[in-house]
Amino acid sequence: MHWVFETEMNKPNSKVKKTPHIIVSDLTMAYGDFVIQRDLNFTVNHNDIFIIMGGSGCGKSTLLRHLIGLKSPAKGQVYYGDINFWDAEPAERSRIMRKCGILYQKGALWSSMTLAENVALPLEEYTDLSDPAIKEIVSLKLALVGLAGYEEFYPSEISGGMQKRAGLARAMALDPEILFFDEPSAGLDPVSARRLDDLILELRDSLGTTVVVVTHELASIFAIGSNSVFLDAESRTMIAQGDPHLMLAETVDPKVKEFLTRGKTVSAETFPG
Amino acid sequence: MPHGVCPVIPAQWCRKEMQVHGKIDFSHPSPDIMHAVISGAWQMDSKLLSPAATLLSRLESNPRIKRLILDANGLAGWDTSFLTFIRTITKECRKRDVGLEIKGLPEGVSRLLHLASVVPEQKDSHQKKKRQPFIYVVGENAVLFATATVQMIDFIGEATLSCWNFLLGKARFRRIDLLLFIEECGAESLPIVTLISVLVGLILAFVGAVQLKLFGAQIYVANLVAIAMAREMGALMTGIIMSGRIGAAYAAQLGTMQVNEEIDALKTMGISPMEFLVLPRLFAMMLMMPLLTLYSDLLGIMGGAIVGVGMMDITVVQYLTQTQATLDLTNISLGIAKAGIYAIIIALSGCMRGMQSGRSAAAVGEATTSAVVTAIVGIIVTDGIFAVLCDALGI
What does the pLDDT look like over B333-346, one tens digit per residue? Predict the structure, then answer.
């Protein structure tokens, strides 16, 4: 298996100092009375590539929505640095969010605008750059995700994978301190998914971005993850956290092991002989 | 190919040739044992009717049976219908404490059945609503109504604040969006408004003509049409057309944006969806509705004139002079004022339902329906309030 070898090369640089960037403490998430996950405690450090993983329907994306201010917690806190995100004033919250870039599951490009306008909107909104300067940045960001020349296309005119990459270009527009990815490789072909992983690593290394990725793509988890949390749908809480490689090597929990080994243990039982 | 001979071709291809439908035969070697022999092809389209029920009714009628032997050696073909049969029988035998022995089960069947039982059934995933007592349902609906009202007031408040921000020059939206929406509500609505207004004018004139003829007062058809169009029908008909055309479109647009997470993307970008999406739509409607209403008034009067001149010996000049004498600025501005308010109702209900929409295709459909219903109810209620107020104020 290729990725085992690669993980060694992609191991996070241990010389970088680890300071907390996002702290989640005692977080309980619920829709009404229906608790999705409870008692979540973890820390995302500066420069981490933090993976939120778990099976389908365990609340990974919901956790992301709590981190980016779209859904308020039933209980518990989310800290950005030393600011309690959900207790802060709306103005403070949007100030924090401005330092975050988010790539949504389906790209979430604004469908009435061209790709260039999509990427340009945050720049127009939050910088005093001149129009030509914005245009330069837009074409650079689109080129970075492999979409040079697609400036005047509308989101509906390009493929799903391209929409996703354009969404990434938009998320990177303001050089955010934290990048959130919701299932980045879902719907991408293996080569594009791999290129996206490389891009994430590159952004972390060159711009010092903290990255939070929601995914269940094993190849990505081991290729880029430096820290992680494992959510379990059945017990409705996190059952493992830490470096995914160490997790794979050391875990004794059958569920974590099954997930990280692509369920080999079960398939042996399923088809005996 | 001769019947029943297919040495190379897989069994399922020979289904038609073999024509052996699934069959189940029973025998009772001893009083507490039932022997069931399964043969033929068990396919969903075969004529075997509910074999499981037949077998179970036999078990039911002989409670002494403690063992069931299924012999599937004669099975010629199978699909899901056979799987469900085996699954049901296994479940029922376990429930009735009857020993089950299956002979000659094809390997594929046992593998699939095993696969279906690997992941245990999620117990609390059944979210089906239980039947609740009447009083509970009433209470629940009352609470839902209250929350819906609060949400509506919340939305109106937020929209008002955004308008205030706009007046302060702080609200942000793309000018090009506003122009596009103006085109959509204004120019593109002209044909349908034309058609409906002329027809409404015609109808009013017909209805009036029949009654007024009795008094020999046909000329007053002009008064009737002019007053009715300017005060009521112009704004009302335009409002209803625009609810269907524009209110529904707004709800569908914003609902789809909700599904695509576009609204989330705006929020997390720190851009207010209220300013960016709702304001241009609201302003486009507020600008275009009064103009469309004025246009509708004119065409309605024209429709009345067609009937008056064409059927009642009134000359064009007579008709127009009579209209001119009847209409004053009060009537026309009353209609236009109503149109402005209807515009707000239509735009806000469309946008509100769109923003509240769930994240599925069905939810967007519901949002669209709900937007049109809300808008039309709002328009009619407002019109009623206007009627009472005008009467009280003597306008």
Answer: 999 999 999 999 99
Partnered with residue B77 across adjacent β-strands are B41
Chain B positions in Cβ-Cβ contact with residue A104 (cut-off 8 Å): 261, 264-265
User: What are the DSSP calls for B248-261, one per residue?
Assistant: HHHHHHHHHHHHTT
Between CA B111 and CA B383 the distance in angstroms is: 69
**A116 Cα to chain B: minimum distance (Å):** 14
Q: Tens of pLDDT along B217-243?
A: 889 999 999 999 999 999 999 999 999
- Report which secondary-structure segment, H or E, holds B71: strand B67-78
Residues in chain B, overall count: 395
- Do B93 and B55 form a contact (C-beta atoms < 8 A)? no
**Residue carrying structure tokens 């839902």:** B144
- Residues A126, A127, A132: CA angle, nearest 5 degrees: 130
- Candidates B330, B320, B304; CA nearest to B221 is B304
Q: Are the beta carbons of B43 and B77 closer than 8 angstroms?
A: yes
Q: Are B43 and B73 in contact (CB under 8 A)?
A: no
Return phi, psi of residue A116, to 5°. Answer: -60, -40
Q: What residues of A are in the B interface, CB distance below 8 Å? A: 65, 68-70, 94, 97-98, 100, 102, 104-106, 108-112, 121-122, 125-126, 170, 266, 269-271
CATH architecture of A2-9+21-262: 3-Layer(aba) Sandwich (3.40)
CA A146, CA A102: separation in Å to the nearest integer?
18
Domain boundaries, chain A: 2-9+21-262
Looking up tokens 């095993």 gives B114
State whether ipTM is beyond 0.85. Answer: no
B260/A97 CB distance under 8 A? no
**CA–CA distance, A45 with A19 (Å, rounded to integer):** 5
Say if the Cβ atoms of A112 and B172 lie within 8 Å: no
pTM score, whole prediction: 0.78
- For residues B142 and B5, the model is more confident at B142
Average confidence (pLDDT) over B306-321: 91
- In angstroms, the CA A264 to CA A34 distance is 32
Please report the pLDDT score of residue B105 as a whole number.
Answer: 85
